[in-house]
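name: query_chain
kind: protein
chains: 1
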Amino acid sequence: METVRLTMAQALVRFLVNQRIRLDGREELLFPGIFAIFGHGNVTCLSEALWQVRDIFPTWRGQNEQGMVLAALGFTKAKRRRQIMCATSSIGPGATNMVTGAAVGHANRLPVLLLAGDSFASRAPDPVLQQVEHFHDPTITVNDAFRAVTRWWDRITRPEQIVESLPQAVATMLDPASCGPAFLGLAQDAQGEAFDYPARFFEPTVHEIPRPRPDRGELRAAAELLRRAERPLLIAGGGARYSEAEQILADFALRRGIPVAETVAGRALLPHDHPANVGPIGILGSASANRLAGEADVVVAVGTRLQDFVTASWTLFAADARFIHLNAARFDAHKHRAQPVVGDAREALRELDEALGDWRAPAAWMERARREYEAWNRFIEERTRPTNAEYPSYAQVVGEVNRLVDERALVLTAAGGLPGELCMNWRAKAPDTFDCEFGYSCMGYEISGAWGAKMADPSREVVAMVGDGSYLMMNSDIYSSVLTGHKLIVVVCDNGGFAVIERLQRAKGIPAFNNQLESSRVQELVRVDFARHAESMGALGLRARGIGEFEDCFRRALEADRTTVIHIETAPHDWTEGNGAWWETGTPEVSPLEEVRRALEEHRAGKRRQRLGV
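structure:
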């Protein structure tokens, strides 16, 4: 058997470089690059291996390990999970900084390969710098924290172990049912140890994303259930996007006369004006979709894990509504006693369509859906209408961005009040132009994820919309985008703190406390000049007061040749409301505050409407 003598780090990198994927009839690198911050746990061996392939497998220097992982996730979302970025850190705090990013990938079913330094397999120099010791178990390191937030976890203590581990990691990340982060902890001594690897381990391998077909019995049962429906509703989730099912879903809905509501992850699967579109659903959804959900007798969920923001904590649907759940993951397909159809979303929809024969939902139901959607559109037209207010609402800023971008631009957000305002008020001009990370609602994803998305497609504008709270939590990838030439437009909506959480606090009858700057324990109330801060990182910084100035600033940003940050102060208490959704959150059962006691009664009323797994 032919062998190649390499260090473990060199072999790992050579294996990654030789993984390919077939995209639109051509072969591309499955792993097109790696984000890296080097420390003593990865700089002496892994960086040497990466240096050797720097021209074909680029290494991108990060500013923060969490930001690197978020950028990698923004990249793979934009590539619809067809390509996977890697991220590497040293041991200790560098590694644990990546844990939050891994959780974002796990919650959103997104692949990323994480490579962290680990302590020495020999234990000879223990305890090493940044090693956390456990008195009862010397095998534990901080990298064990990744077990809870990864789909594949391994610790490499011998150089030959990667021969078995790496292919399994790749298979996990490419499997639509188990997709998520893969983690390898690389012992520092093992990284540099040499081994005679089989040459065929490095042969180029071309991957294709599997498309599992549904079971015929499950499909037949689903078709029989749908044929009895008088008021069916289709809920389209992120899995439909990753399956590239947009066109089939759109055609299926029109042919069968089924209204389509979109989850947060499924937003912009259909353009805003598609005849079957009835808007986003759930807590961040539209009154049109939510009303239809309350009356639907059969709900077809496609590629969604049905989290509480979609189901309004399972109060949105009629008590006797039946569910059909098309999903590549068995775990999701069987939720809430749904009729499962386990398989690829695109192929499952195609085969369900064939099984339905000439069935079509009653025309009156789709007409009803269109009337509801027209009413919702009139509502958001009014919400987003520009005014001369000194402090415009989030909705007005969203509406202005919506009017000014072209149909290919990607808008991106993650946490705070903007997910709701974007999901409700954004009108998608084309499919796949919307990214709201709300599986983990991770503050800081906005700018880092936008950097990764711009890497994935440098030809289109990427607009990150971020609140002042998220900006302060993680903004250093503005500098990354400037250094690497990946131009972003960053809109900072400054409402003076964590305003949307204060909204929830007040809704539960609790006085404003420790969320807005003005209600926090501060010696001096100082507001940040985000435009000047961005300028210090090499970006173009602009300040806007009111929508008129914001329009001028945004046009300048579109014409600029570098990342531009627009700082606009917004109204802290002007939210888009009235979609009829309820969200279960913890509520004190005992309180001296009358307002809290009233909130408890509202909470109990909501609980009475809740479906419990049936």
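note: The chain has three domains: 3-207, 216-376, 384-569.
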